[in-house]
Design brief:
- This protein is an alpha/beta fold.
- The chain has two domains: about 5-135, 3-Layer(aba) Sandwich (Rossmann fold), CATH 3.40.50.2300; about 175-365, Hypothetical protein af1432, CATH 1.10.3210.
- The chain is built from 14 helices and five strands.
- Helix 10 runs antiparallel to helix 11 and helix 12 crosses helix 14 (about 345-365).
- The relative contact order is 0.07.
Length: about 375
């Protein structure tokens, strides 16, 4: 017999049976005797027992009516009920079991049998409690594990963003002629993608993107400029043809750098977008771009989008060898480049959001 004193509510309108049952059980259990179903529900408002011994044949509310009410209450429905009866009727037992009783005990009580039946049920109760506790502990462990994984993921993302920001800052520090270019092009790209989604343009491809990953990856589009000598990168005059050929090498240098990073990281989605943007944003719709000379839809969509953002920003920015174009002049050049430099479909999207481009350029120059 367990040393744990479980609580039992004993319900019987027969005072003799009630007293006898309490005397048999009190050595091993905390017994609460009540003379009616109504009194049982009063007791339940004060204590939830481990087991209810419930007489069937009672006035006012019989055992069947009482168990129906018990099982209808979420607070009581899981309390196991053993019926007490003086009847020896199989149909009666089946009815009680159908209503949710776990066992039947006939009266008058046999102390050994009564104790053995209750001991069996208490073992089930104990096992159920242990199972529920184990489930709760497992859930708590899983919740804590999820929390730790999320915290670690956030740490890695923060570290990744910190490294990315440092690299981007290094590129812009070296390229003194294009201050703020990386941030602006990312914002232009966001404006274009927002409109693509709104209009359902290139929907199949865009729906596969995680925009929260794609946009930060665009910061690496000019990372290859780190490999270009300062004499060319910051030359105050227009580049010679040979110098321009050298400048073009920033694309392949950027691709190489991103591929090396990709080989040492599991975040391939981020690097996939970064690679496509860095490697193809200087390609042109008519095939006259570099470094490969891709044409039309062979140019990844990310690169075609960045081409518009990159050229617009270059046009409106002042250089030592040229004055800044106005927003209106830049828009005319972009629109005239449809079908030649730029994807005509994306140029139509640009026409819709060009006011946002102007606002971005104004806000980031203030």
């Amino acid at each position: 017999m367990s040393n744990t004193r479980h609580t039992i509510i004993l319900v019987d309108d027969n005072i003799t049976s009630l007293t006898a049952g309490k005397n048999m059980l009190s050595t091993f259990y905390q017994v609460i005797p009540v003379p009616s179903a109504e009194k049982m529900f009063e007791a339940l408002r004060k204590v939830i027992p481990d087991l209810i011994l419930l007489d069937i044949d009672m006035p006012e509310m019989n055992g069947y009516e009482a168990i129906k009410k018990l099982k209808a209450e979420p607070s009581y429905e899981d309390i196991p009920v053993i019926f007490l009866t003086a009847l020896h009727d199989a149909n009666t037992e089946v009815e009680g079991l159908d209503l949710g009783a776990v066992d039947y005990i006939t009266k008058p009580f046999s102390a050994p049998l009564l104790l053995k039946r209750i001991e069996k049920e208490m073992l089930i109760v104990l096992q159920r409690k242990e199972l529920l506790k184990a489930h709760a502990d497992l859930k708590d462990y899983a919740d804590n594990l999820d929390k730790k994984v999320n915290e670690k993921t956030l740490e890695v993302l923060n570290l990744q963003n910190a490294i990315l920001t440092t690299v981007v800052d290094l590129v812009e520090f070296r390229d003194k002629l294009t201050g703020g270019h990386i941030m602006r092009t990312q914002l232009y790209l966001s404006a274009l993608i927002d409109e693509l989604i709104k209009q359902g343009i290139y929907e199949e491809e865009v729906s596969q993107w995680d925009i929260a990953i794609l946009l930060p990856s665009a910061k690496l589009h000019d990372v290859g400029k780190i490999a270009i000598t300062d004499m060319i990168l910051n030359k105050p005059d227009k580049l010679t043809p040979d110098e321009f050929e050298t400048m073009k090498e920033h694309v392949s240098a950027g691709v190489d750098a991103i591929e090396r990073i990709s080989n040492n990281t599991s975040d391939h989605t981020f690097m996939h977008h970064a690679l496509r943007i860095a490697g193809t944003h200087h390609e042109k719709w008519d095939g006259s771009g570099y470094p490969i000379g891709l044409k039309g839809h062979d140019i990844p969509l990310e690169g075609r989008l960045m081409a518009i953002a990159d050229v617009y920003d270059a046009l409106i920015s002042k250089r030592s060898y040229k004055n800044a174009f106005t927003h209106e002049e830049a828009c005319v050049i972009i629109e005239d480049g449809a079908g030649k430099h730029f994807d005509p479909t994306l140029v139509n999207v640009f026409k819709i959001v060009k006011d946002r481009f102007e606002q971005i350029a104004f806000d980031t120059s203030c």
